[in-house]
Every structure is written in structure tokens, then in C-alpha cells.
Amino acid sequence: MNSAILEIPLEQTPYENPVLLYTYNFTTASYLRTRRIVDLQEISILDLQSASGYSTLALALANPNAEITSVACSNAAVALAQKRLQYHGIENVRFQTLSFDRLEKIDREFDYINVENVLDQFPDAAVGLQTLQSKLKSEGIIRVKVDSAIARFYNYQAQRFFAELGLLQNSPSQAEVAKVREIMGLLKNGSMLKELTWLPQYSTEAGDAAIVRDYLFNHARGFRFPELFDAMEAANLEFISMVQAKQWDLQRLFKDIEDLPIFLTLRLAEMSLSEQLQLFELLNPIHPTLEFWCGHPQLAELEEPPAEWTDADWQTARVSFHPQLRTPALYETMQNAIVQQQALELTQFLPIVPGPLVVDSLMVACLLPLVTQILPVSALVENWQRLRPLNPLTLEPTTEQEAWGAIAQLLVGLEELGYIFLERAS
Fold first, then answer.
1. pTM of the entire predicted model
2. Given a cut of 70, is residue 220 above it in pLDDT?
């Protein structure tokens, strides 16, 4: 394939996209699974990458102490990935050219396996996941990204249309991209294929890579949730979560869940997670890709969410910011907010929730140490009592119970949104 068309600019960095780094960070998925604070010092990562090595770069930046193996099917893809990582000064990556159906030649297991848009290169999804499962450590996690057969249905229609014109016979060229652009430009507005697939940015050279992917890439195919869940079961893998799971909440599609007819309420209650995700896609196919985490089945029960903890649980718990927030930039901004007695908008550093997430300046001062260290929750309670020694309503000294209540309420909210990790004693 013409790398000049598909290549992401060498200088482009995932640092410009904190949400991307958040989803690539091993701790994000690991915490969802175990509710334990993970040490990232010595994890091993396998990246099966099919294009330019950008995913390998993102994994390296999101997991700075990890040992990464980047595998691609062609020497050209490996060479481009090496060039990209070298440009950004990343040295903890080794590269290998290997067909994905020969992964058994890799004689080691990994903590984290990243698989993006390559599962369709296996004979079927179950075979692909079985192969990956054999390379996964017992506590390991696989991150899978595939095209959605439902959301990209009309893109596949477009590919079939251009295949009929003979444009998908070989690797896409700049001339073929120009032909697609010309033909789509000549279609009347209102033509269904144009209305549902063509975007304004495709009309400029900046849209070349998207045209190749959406109109000329004849090897990709889409998946549906039942197929993926069946494949996980066949591979003895357990579903953990969708990436950005809140965007897949079926109930949020309805104006008021309380107004649903009783038959629908009962049906939704008895649906499996796979069925609920499939129903979401049928109602609202807005996600062109299906991205999720899975791993070996775990015998231990999932830790209770902090909202259900007892007082004794809180007394022994410890807390950490998500690693994506443990940055000098956040530390400096928090210090300025404290000095100027201004609220802090956390979403400017990690926009993983819609709308602003604002923390008042006193709570910012309480949370400041979490940028550099993991602390017992009791330490934050002590901080709060020093920062707010009096109850503003009664002017009585802030009691320990009031301090615990204020800190627990804040931490439960931040944990549910994904900004902090909370871990109670085993």
C-alpha cells in the first residue's frame, strides 16, 4: 500500500491526545478489572500493528516503563515504526516482522496485548483470540479494536461500489484516491451513499488516508457483538469492559428510563451484556469501531465499588491519581489554583467525561500530593481538617466524621468517572 497516503506524520505525537493515552495505559483496564493500584515498572506489552507504528508509540508513551514488542506483517511497516519511535526518542521497543498467523513463534507471554484492526486477518475471530490467549499471562489483558459491521455498513457498500469499477485490485494509489474524490464529488447531494459516508474533509488532500480506509481498503471486514462474545467464549477469555464504556450505556438513549413500558424494562433486565451492546448498536450506530478489553477468566469476585464500602474499608484504603494525571503540568496548575483560590477544571487535562469537571480550590489543595505519590485516604482526611478547621455553618471545629464524609464523597465521584484509583486493604 502507498505509505505516503496512509502514513501519520512522523512528528505527530499522542501527547496531543490525552484520552488516547488514557485508553492505551495498562492501568486503566487493570483497575477496571481488579480495583487494585498497579505498579507499571515491569510490564511487558505486545503490539500487533498493521500500519505506521503509531499505536506502538502511544503504548510506549502511556506505559513509559514497559518492555514493548511491536509486530507487523511487512518489513516496510516495521521500518516505518522503527523510524517513528526513533524520532520520538523511544528505546524500550523491539521490532519483529511476522505474519499474524505465525505468532506461535513468539516464545514468551505478555501482560498486555494490543490488537488494532488485525483480528480480521485471522481465519475467524475465535482463532485470532485463541492465538492471542496463548501469549497472555495469567493476569494479562488484551485490548481489541475492530471495525463495526453495523456502523460501517455503508462504507463497505462504498468499497463494493469502487471494487465494481476496478479500483480495489491493487494497493491504493494517489490516482485511485483522486478518482474516488472525483466520483463522489459528481454525485448529487441526497444520494444515500454520499450522504452517509462522505465528509467535507475528504475533499482535500488531508482526507487521503480516510479515503483509502473508507473506500479503497478491501481487506477489512466488520464484526458484531454476538460474534465477538462467541469468539471470546471459544478462546476461554472473559470480557472486561468496553473502552470508554460510558459511551455504550443503553439506558442513556432513552429520554426517561422510568417511562419505559414494563415489557421492555423486564426484557432489558434479563438481557446479557452482549445483547445490550448489540441493542445499543442497532439503535444508535455511532461508533465506527468496537474497542474492548478482555482477559483470562478470573475466579476471584470483583471488588465492591467504593460507594458500597464500610467505614472500616475507608480507614484502610489508599488512593492514587490515574497515571495520566500525574504530570508536572497538572501539579503547576493545581498550585496556581490554590494560590489564587480558584477552582480547577480537571477535564482540561483529561477530557474523558462530557462537560467540565470542576474541583474547588480547597479540595485541590487536599488532592495536590496525589500528583506525586500514592496516599492513605486517612492522609487526605487529615489534610482536609487542617485546610478547613471550622464548619462554615456552625463555626464549630470540623469533626473527623465530617472530614471523612467530605473526602469519601469527592473520591467516590472521581473514581466513578475514572480520574482516581481507590484500593482497600486485602
1. 0.90
2. no
